[in-house]
Write a structure and sequence with these properties.
The protein has 163 residues and is an alpha/beta fold. The protein has one domain (2-162): Rossmann fold. The chain is 30% helix and 20% strand. It has helices spanning 28-43, 57-70, 87-95, 112-121; strands spanning 2-8, 50-53, 76-78, 103-108, 132-137, 152-157. The protein has a 6-stranded mixed beta sheet with strand order 3-2-4-1-5-6, sandwiched between helices. Helix 1 (28-43) packs parallel to helix 2 (57-70).
Length: 163
């Protein structure tokens, strides 16, 4: 059994029109919400064994804040294929996860994240920025995951629920 934590990056800033989409930083709300969700993961006993993130500035900043707040001690794995990402890219990335990682957090982007969650669980959920979906997968090894894999949606946590 594996646990997949899917997290949409925290809220980003659009203040600087000279920045590309890839380079947008977190805004004040994002800086507040990312560690808040890391605290939730810690409090729920869901500290990730590994965090995989898109290389976008806002995603990496989200992953770093969640890691620190949750107490995750693993290195961050930055994967270019997750920006902007699609369902097949999520599957390819997950298939490369080491099997000693039972619980993996993936920080990515919409619409890919919501689409992948829907395909994986059969449940359509809206994932606002910094939301975390918890999915149980009945697989023993990450390389077993495929587009046909079906997981069970356990929870979806949104930052506003914890204000």
């Amino acid at each position: 059994m594996k646990t997949l934590l899917l997290m949409r990056h925290a809220k980003s800033s659009r203040k600087d029109p000279n920045l590309t989409d890839h380079d947008r930083p977190l805004n004040k709300r994002g800086i507040r919400d990312a560690p808040r969700m890391g605290n939730v993961l810690r409090d729920e006993g869901l500290v990730p064994d590994l965090i995989v993130t898109s290389p976008a500035t806002r995603a990496v900043a989200t992953a770093e804040a969640v890691a620190k707040a949750s107490g995750c001690r693993s290195e961050l794995r930055v994967v270019a294929e997750l920006y902007p990402g699609d369902s097949p890219s999520y599957v390819r990335v997950l298939r490369e996860i080491p099997d000693d990682s039972r619980r993996v957090l993936v920080v990515g982007h919409n619409p890919a994240m919501e689409r992948f969650l829907g395909e994986l669980t059969g449940m359509m959920e809206i994932l606002p920025t910094a939301a975390v979906a918890v999915v149980e997968l009945s697989i023993a090894k990450w390389k077993e995951i495929s587009q046909a894999t079906r997981g069970r949606l356990i929870s979806v946590w949104r930052p506003r629920e914890f204000e």
